[in-house]
Each structure stands twice: as C-alpha cells, then as structure tokens.
Amino acid sequence: MTLNPENLLQNKTTRRIAASQTPFPLPDVDFYPIADMVQGQISVWEVRRLSAHALHENRVRPDAPWRLESSLDVACLQKALAAAPRLPENGQLLFLLHPASFDHPDFARHLAQGMEDLPLDPRHLLFAVRSRDLAPRSPGLFSTLRALTPRGFGFCLYGADAKALSPSFLLQIRPNLILADPNLFTQKPRNGEETALLSAMISDICRRLGSRLAVSGVHRAEDLHHFLNLGIRFMQGEAIAAPSPFPSQDLLPRSLPDFQLSASASPSLRTCPQVGNLARRGLTASISDTVQQIVKKLENRPPTESVCLLEENRPVGLLMRYHLDRHLSSPYGNALFLKKSASRIMDREPMIRDAGTPLDEVARAAMARPAERLYDDILITQKGLYAGALSVRGLLEALSQVQVEMAKGANPLTGLPGNTAIEERMGFYRETCAQISLIYADLDHFKAFNDTFGFEAGDRMLLFTANLIRETAARCCGQDTFIGHVGGDDFVIFTRPEEAESFAKTLTETFAHEICGFYPEDIRCQGFVQAKDREGNPKKFPLVSISLGIVDCHFHPGLDPRILSQRVAQIKNYAKSRKGNAWVRDRRETPGFSSLFSDTGAA
Questions:
Q1: CB 178, CB 155: distance < 8 Å
Q2: In what order do the strands lie in the sheet with 545-554?
Q3: Which end of the chain is more exposed for a tag (fewer CB within 10 A), N or C?
Q4: pLDDT tens-place string over residues 244-274
Q5: CATH topology classification for 409-602
Q6: Using CA atoms, how far apart are residues 85 and 3, in angstroms rounded to an integer?
Q7: Which fold has domain 24-259?
Q8: What dotted CATH number matches 275-399?
Q9: Could you tell me which of 279, 453, 464 has the C-alpha nearest to residue 380?
Q10: How many CB atoms lie within 10 A of CB 332?
C-alpha cells in the first residue's frame, strides 16, 4: 500500500472521489499520530481539518450549523480516504464526526464508494463521537454505532471525561478506543492519593473492558512520564510524534523506546483482599443527635475524623470533621446549626460498601466521587449493618501493600506473577478441589526474532504478549482468572473450563493479526526471517506465532504435580507442531483430569 504524497489527487480513485457532488471543495487535512508505547510504533492516525473558515461563507443557512458540520465531515472523509493506501497493515484512521454526519445523505454513499474503490478493509477505520454527544437521549446514535461494529468498523469515544469513564456508560457503548481528556489525568494532587486511586481505575478499565485507552495532549516529556506511570499504553501529542499531511511511521522519534511503557505500572489487583478486613470501628451517633452532640464527640480529634450517623445500626449518613467545621465557621454558623439535628448537614449519600467487596473495586468507586468528597471516609457494612469505616489513607496503604506483595514474585519485565505465585495458586486449587482449565502459552520462533532484531525488540514482543493475554482474559474470562509468567516466552493462564476455548480462539486470532506490526514491510511480505538455528546453521524461520495447550483438571490434595506437568508439556508440544497460531485442548482422560471438552483451532 504505497502512494506518492505529492500525487495523492492524481490517481484514479481520488479523482472519482473528488468529482462527487459535495457542497464544499475538499478541505486540507492533517494526520495526528497515536502511538503504541509498548510496540514503539504508530497505530492510529486522527484526521483533522486544517481550517474550515473559508468554507463557511454562504454555504448553509445560519440557523442550521449542524448541516455545515456534517457536510464538512463528509468532505473531510473523502479527502482522508485518498490517503488510506499509505496505512500500514495494522494502521487505522480515526474520524471525529458530528452526530448529524451519520445521517447525512452523502455520508454512506461516499464511505461505500471509497471502501470499494481503494479497496479498504473496514477494520482500518475508526469513527469517533465526543462523549458529550453520546447522551442517553440519543438512542438513534447508539443504534447507528452498534450497527457499524458488525460490519468491521471501529468506534472511538472521544474526549472522555470522568463521567464518560463510568463502568455503566462504557458497558453500554463498548468502544474499541477511548481517547481520554488529558485534564482527567494532569490535575496536580497535593499528595499521591489521587494518582494511586487513578492508577487502580485505569488498570481495571484496560483489563476488564478490553478497549484501548489513549490520552491526547502529551506535549512535554514530564507529561509522557506521568501517563506512563499511570499505565496508559496509547498516547498522542507533540512529545510522541508531530502531525503530517499523510500517515507515516517515520515521524516517530528514535528516542521513543527510552520512554516505553513499564509493564510493572498499574499491576492487576486480582488478589486484592476484601475491604472488610481493613475496617476500623469509628465514631458513631444516632440520626437524632444534634450538631452540638457531634461536636463533643469530635473534640480533640484530627480534622480528618468522621462520625457515622446510624438508624437502627444501619448507616444513613456521614459527617466529616472538616465539613462540620466549614458549616460552623460560616456567618452565624453556631446559631444556625448547633442545636439542630445533625441530619441537616450530614452527607446523605456517603460511599457505603459491603465487607466482602474487593479492595480494588472500592478504590475505583472512591476515585469516581466528586472532588469535594474525594477524601471522605468509606463506610463498611456487614449484611446491611454498620461494621466500621475506612479512611482514604488506609485504603492507599492497603493498595500499596498489595502491590508490594505482588511485585515480590512478579516477572521483572511483564509484572505478571512468577513461579512462586503460580505454585501458590495451584496449591490453593488443590486445597479447594477446584475444576480449572490450565492454558499454557508459548511463542514459536521467538529466538529467531530475538537474534534478528535484538533483545530490546524481543522484550517489546514479550510485553505485548503479556498485555494481549491480559486484555483477552478481561474480554473472555471471569475476574477469578489467574495469569502467570513462567519465564522467557512461556505463560500460564488458569480459568474456568467453559471460558478456555473462547479465550484461546480470541488470543490466537488477535495475535496473528497484530504480530505483523513487529516486522518491516519486506519481511512481512516474504513471510520469514533468515537466522541461525541452535546448531549455528542458517535457516528460514516463519514469523512469530503463539501456541496454546489447554488441560482441564479437577484439582484435589492428592494430585501429583508431576503428572500435570507431563500432560501440559505433551499438549503444548502438540500445539507447537501445528503450523501458525494454534490452540489444542486435551481430550484424554487420566485420574484427576476431566475431558468435558475437546477441540483444536488455528488462526
């Protein structure tokens, strides 16, 4: 897919597109790169109009500005499609559209014509809508976006703010890409509390939703480091790559790999303890108590202390010391409030969580609170009754401890649990007699890739594989799925038997699609690399592929781990004997093993 940029409008396809009936001349556009910080390459180019002021004069009636925007969108689409042949194999164009553009009479026609003439695969196009335009009152727009997905087009949530990143909203629209508002992440907290909570939220979004999360406005080196520390993989801005008149990988700075994403950033908190283990018995009062009685309880207490107001031992409100001081320090505050019921000034909607709620889930909910409540205590209940409270400081200390414990046995490159944690997890399965599918993942021809392109490129591929396994597990498996890194290019996944095949099929297909981005175009075309085998003889090696072996196991205390290891090794070797990306499920029966499922697959 090559095209001379100086002759973009001279080829047959472009002339046909330009000759279509449009209300405006084709606008000039620039392509703003969005880089993948793991692979160290540009994956998406956002299409932006350079200027539209000359197109505004006498073109539409002033009482219909949406007509202007949608017409400009159609013209922009036409111009950008002409540059689509320059896209790399896995590249995508991102179009930010006005909601009315989807209903524009020329939109579907020009899109279909451009896709047919070029030709262009739908997976190369992402259509973006601003988060503020995706209101629940727009059911028609929701239907249109959902209709695009089965046809292969992608959908991007553009300029996502805190409200748009709510789990319920994201589950409803399920975007392929989230281009977040940088202001959401660049507010400077007085301490590390907001950053720690935000990291937990971002990690969970990437792991559970399966969407790519990107941030724009990365213009300085300090911004770049800030977002990397939050675990954000995709970025756009002057510190990443400059805009250009056509899509190009050449714009990516050579120094970019120095800033690439650390796999240890924002580790998955799958083993988080339950929040009830951290609850402390705080100060309580009756819903009928006066403000004066609350003041007495809080005498000589720190400004971060709180009182939980109860009704029949059920929490109905919260009064933080600093909120109370704010009310009483206002003009006539004592006269207005002291003898009144505390219910008049309490927070009637405090954050309340059951004692069995995982700590990471509590952290995400705490981060989503309004700024004025961000540091309020969290109330803990047991069967609806008051069990205690948890401060934000206590929450952060617990999160830090979890991360430290996870890091002790983690692989230093990918941040995934290592062999010690894997053995502990298998011990847990034996004790609980769990029925689990063990999936062993191994890269084929990785040594040849490493020898050809160097250890740095090899590390990027391992990090890519680890992140892809995480994303696939988030999409196909339950929250109790465990992912471990045995070492080198070997990974293990423990998941439910009914989820194993969906995981294996999705992982092999996605890996086959995305791995081409690690190779230069000439090697992709020839389909192999020239390297030396283990005996030092020159040999042609295929591109790296992934092989998965699935063993269904009924763990029990008497299960011999040697039998399990032998079975896993056999099924993994059988998978590796198949050409390309493949997965195999063991169908044999042995003591302690089940054979409820059996199948093979390849991508």
A1: no
A2: 482-487, 490-495, 435-444, 545-554, 582-585, 600-602
A3: N
A4: 887 876 656 544 444 443 333 333 333 456 7
A5: Alpha-Beta Plaits (3.30.70)
A6: 7
A7: TIM Barrel (3.20.20)
A8: 3.10.580.10
A9: 279
A10: 8
